[in-house]
Amino acid sequence: VAWLFLVSSILCLTIPAINYGASRWLFLLERDWPVRIILHVMMTFILPSCALGMISPVVAKMALDCGAKVGRTIGNIYAWGACGSIVGTFLAGFYLIAVMGILKLLVVIAVVLALMAAAYSRGSRSFCLYVLFTGVMLFGAVSDAGDGKRIGRYMYLRDPLEDDKTCVYRDESQYSHIAVMCAEEEPSYRAMVLDKLMHTKMDVDNPLQLKYEYWWVYEAIINNCSKKGEPLSVFAIGGGGYAFPRYVEETRPGSNIHVAEIDPAVTEAAFTAFGLNADTTIKIHDMDARNYVDDLVNAMDSGCGEQIKFDCIIGDSFNHYNVPYHLTTLEFAGNLARLLKPEGVYILNLVDMYEPGLFLGAIVRTLEQAFSSVCVFSSTGRFDARDTFVVVASMTEYDMSGVDELIRFKHARYRGRQLSEDEIAALRNQKNNMILTDDFAPVEQLLACVFRSDYTDLFARYVVLGSQELDAGRYERAEEIFTRMMKRAPVNMSDPYFNLGEVFERKADYNKAMDYFQYALTKDPGSSSIRNRIAELITRQGDIDGGKSLWLEVLEDAPYNVDANNNMGLVLAYNGMLDEAMTHWRKVLQVRPSDPLAHYQLGMALLKKGFGTDASYHIKKARESDPELTSVVKDFLPAHDDAGSADIVERLLF
Fold first, then answer.
1. H-type helices in 95-242, by residue range?
2. Which residues contact 185 (CB under 8 A, 6 or more apart)?
3. What is the pLDDT of residue 643?
4. Three-state DSSP class for 618?
5. Model-level pTM?
6. Which of residues 643 and 293 earns the better pLDDT score?
7. pLDDT higher than threshold 60 for residue 633
8. Span 18-32, mean pLDDT?
9. Least enclosed by CB within 10 Å: which of 256, 288, 345, 374?
10. Closest-CA residue to 202 (of 220, 190, 192)
């Protein structure tokens, strides 16, 4: 049995490395989801599970060899095994994972198994040495020392985000792995990632700038159903980064805002790294939204406790495909209807595909049983791929016909629209005709077709591999990888065409590159990065005015777009308009203070205008950000500095 404990310990230590490799194995990523999940789980856990499962029978045989009674011995061993499984499940799920994290917990299990192996081996030297080895692994998993971190990283026992400069906060709770990421040059721009889903993104210095299209829909619906700026009573189901509750708090002072967030660790992340102020007026309830709603309804029925009705209830708790079914049912919707004022609205978002739209259709039919009026908005306006839909339910019939224009007036990039009555009728009249109830709400099955079509991890791996080949100059191999990506991509995905455009641009086949960039733009008409690359190609081919015109379009939609401002500055400088060019580079430095291209070009322009001291400052800042100054070279325009200026630059730098 000592050898079984030893083998089990070794196999437990290999779980993180095998899991890491399986998650990046292209062969596995290209399989259908059911096959992929089965193979991934088997590769990662089948050997440790088999080894651990063999211990009980061997221990039972050892006990029987000692003359113990068969029935009592077998019964005791398996009874204690069952008790251990139950205690271990609850202990890990409710305490250990939150305190230690999964990786550290795996190493601790390996250490315990190693100690058991050493005990059963009666102090064998080789087994004791292995115990020492697991101790080193534990040191690697928990230590903040340089050597410990290197050991942990080598054995995949550390969170890969811990050395990521863009990760400003990490935690692991009973519910999810939490990370707050920031843009390297724009530290106020934050994204909260729960497990693998980017749940919230916002500029913490500007909470009024809503980043998601479905938030634009929320904003327009609330403004359509109430007077702009007046205080409201709002209940948000799910907090996340608290972006929209903060928006309501800022734009409607005096509002009574309640948020039910089941995971206190997510709320802590919002306070620590996502700009939620400690003196916020938002009332936060660390509990499941269903329980909070039940408490409010019970208080209403009994006449005791908190008595409150809401102008607006916002449902934002559906995490990717992890949908808490109990927040989708008719019983829950009925309670929400009771908590709304007569003119109140319930707004929720969900991910689905319009065709077949099984989950969306079930939600519409369910809400129609509890509310008088239900309408639906698409965030993208495309029905041929996955989309985020916003469903609006109320007891009052509101005219929503002007909501789309209201959104486009403020957000020119908005491509979504309200679904017509015929489109909602098509959802309502699906074959399954399902109404979700507490007894029957198979949300996972309803989302199965959407889940099967999600190749996010595969596409990310394609991009990594293709980019590596592109940087290495192996253009044919990069083209092959991005072509494979294109064949699997959904019809509205622009990335593979954009990447293929980059391949042909590197190969100096500008006509073919332009074809791919133009086609990518048809998939994502609002993309600033695609339009920027098209403008660069146009300029490279001699049409400077055409490139300038396209950059002006980008800047009209996004006045502080970094690439467009940098390139617009270069075009203006090329035409001798240095003052106008410097305005654009200064805009870049407002949002990206360390941008080497903006610093370098601004320094060169200042040098030409005779401001040597200021020029020296900016050119040195460019060198600090990019010591080799490789990122300041733009080959689509002749450089606007001359040899004499270059000599002066060398003297300024050295």
1. 97-100, 102-120, 125-142, 146-154, 213-225
2. 591, 592, 593, 594, 595
3. 38
4. helix
5. 0.77
6. 293
7. no
8. 87
9. 256
10. 190
Cα distance between residue 578 and residue 583, in whole Å: 9
Comparing CA positions, the residue from 172, 171, 170, 174 lying closest to residue 182 is: 170
Q: State both tokens at 143.
A: 């230590």
**For residues 420 and 89, what is the distance between their CA atoms, to the nearest angstrom?**
49
Are 170 and 161 contacting, i.e. CB atoms less than 8 angstroms apart? Answer: yes
Quote the DSSP letter at residue 258: E
Q: What is the DSSP string of 561-602?
A: -HHHHHHHHHHHHHTT-HHHHHHHHHHHHHH-TT-HHHHHHH
Compute the distance between CA of residue 638 and CA of residue 640 in angstroms, rounded to an integer: 6
Mean per-residue pLDDT, 440-455: 84
Q: Nearest CA to 567 among 594, 534, 590?
A: 534
Residue 405, pLDDT > 80, answer yes
Structure tokens at 199: 């749940």
The percent of residues above 90 in pLDDT, for the chain, comes to 41
| Pairing between β-strand 386-394 and β-strand 340-353 as defined by DSSP bridges | antiparallel
* 93 CA to centre of own chain: 24
pLDDT at 630: 63
Distance of alpha carbon 254 from alpha carbon 282, whole angstroms: 10
